[in-house]
Amino acid sequence: MWLNPDQPTGAGYHGLRFVYGTSSLGYNTIHKWVGLGYDAMVLVTGATGFVGRTVIRYLAASGYPVRCLVRNNMSGLRLPRDLTVFVTAGSLSDTEVIRNALLGVETVIHLASADWQGLETGLIDVDHAGSRELLKVAVEANVRRIVYLSHLGADRASAFSVHKIKGIVEEFIRRSGIPHTIIRSALLYGEEDSFTNAAAALLRVVPVVCPLPGSGQVLLQPLWVGDLATCIVRSLADDSLVNRTISVGGPEFLSLASVAHLIMQQIGVRRIIMGTPHPYLRWMVQRLRPLLSNSPLTTHWLDHVAVNRTCEVNSMPRYFDIKPAVFEHTIGYLTKGKWRSDLDLLLGRSSMELVKSRESLKPKS
After folding, report:
1. What is the pLDDT of residues 133-162, one digit of tens each?
2. Distance from the CA of 325 to the CA of which of 7, 19, 165, 331 falls in 20 to 30 A?
3. How far apart are CA 175 and CA 106, in angstroms?
4. What is the pLDDT of residues 253-308, one digit of tens each?
5. Residue 256: CB atoms within 10 Å
6. Residue 68 confidence (pLDDT)
7. Is the pLDDT confidence value at 76 over 60?
8. Secondary structure (3-state) at 248
9. Where are the alpha helices (H) located in 80-222, listed in sequence order?
10. Average pLDDT in the 182-211 region?
11. DSSP class per residue in 312-329
12. Residue 90 buriedness (CB in 10 A; 0-12 / 13-18 / 19+)
């Protein structure tokens, strides 16, 4: 069925496949894919997330027909409005939904993760249980390839939940028997990310000092999300990457303190860097969690910057013939923030919540 991008949507579309949005490809092209039984459909999990929205745009630009597995609540569907994609609504915990999503699919790009949400139950439900269910059904559906987005630092023996769960899921994929490519990514950034935007908001809102985990000397290799999306798309046509784990990162090693200084320079503020012990910051974040349930500042945020996350500087040119973007040159989007919107971001308040809050403050007639 064809869905107008302006048409209200709801949970009534659970488990159904429909074409979403409009694009220059047009309805006739999509109809041709369906009518001819096009067998190169790519399923993207986590398609509405920060990375997913970029990946499906790059896939569409490269000519791949795309199906997105999205959550049941479609009223908040966040897919690019100018693309034509298929959508299956449902959960990774629902076997029947996954079967529907895999109809006609040859390749799965598995991006779904709760690694920025700060809840252990999210990692268990989405990353652990969800990935196992997806792989089980993918084997039954004879999926020919799976590309999985992991992290530099992924290790099932890690003391940090985010890195531990990624290491476990990597093992699930290797043991599934499905031809695979695991891409271990450095810390990702880009417009609407949970890392640089939260850091910039914190720097604007908190005066005088900038508390950083540890001494601020952990090494990062920031990778622009557009470069990662290019890697993922190019990996689909590269048989030399089958059954391999590839580490990718940006063109430079930066300490966390250096990243903070570059963000301060970009947004025009000055703060004193103050190293803060990890246990203290984790304790503080956990204490505030009940009040800031939707805030991007979580214990998982701290996990992402808890250990060095680096690889070969030439990994992108070597494997994908890409010259990755320089961090300092690609964070101009951070200048858009304002003090009030920054505070709302840190408090985890959505635009709908803000409207309701303001309405409640109006005097009743």
Report:
1. 999 999 999 999 999 999 999 999 998 888
2. 165
3. 19
4. 999 999 999 999 999 999 999 988 888 888 887 777 777 667 777 777 788 888 89
5. 21
6. 93
7. no
8. strand
9. 95-101, 120-122, 131-140, 161-176, 196-205
10. 91
11. -TTHHHHHH---PPPGGG
12. buried
| C-alpha–C-alpha distance, residues 83 and 77, integer Å | 13
CA pseudo-torsion sign 150, 152, 154, 158:
negative
Side chain identity at residue 272, one-letter code: I
3-state helix, strand, coil in the chain (%, to 5): 45, 20, 40
Residues listed for the chain:
365
Q: Which residue, 169, 171, 105, is CA-closest to 138?
A: 105
Q: Which tokens in the block code for residue 359? A: 């309405």
Dihedral pair phi/psi, residue 192, rounded to 5°: 75, 15
Fold classification of 2-186+223-248 (topology level) = Rossmann fold (3.40.50)
**Against a cut of 0.85, is the pTM above it?**
no
What tokens does 10 get? 């709801």
User: Which phi-psi region, left, alpha or beta, contains residue 243 (left: φ > 0; alpha: ψ -120 to 50)?
Assistant: left
The tokens for 44 are 């993207």
Over 60: is that where the pLDDT of 15 sits?
no
The two beta strands, 85-89 and 105-110, are unpaired
Q: Find the largest Cα–Cα distance for the chain.
A: 70
Does pLDDT of 53 surpass 50? yes
Tokens of 169: 């899921």
Q: Which amino acid, residue 175?
A: R
* Burial profile 306-324: b = 16 or more Cβ within 10 angstroms, e = fewer: bbebbbeeebbeebbebeb
**Cβ neighbours around 347 below 10 Å, total:** 17
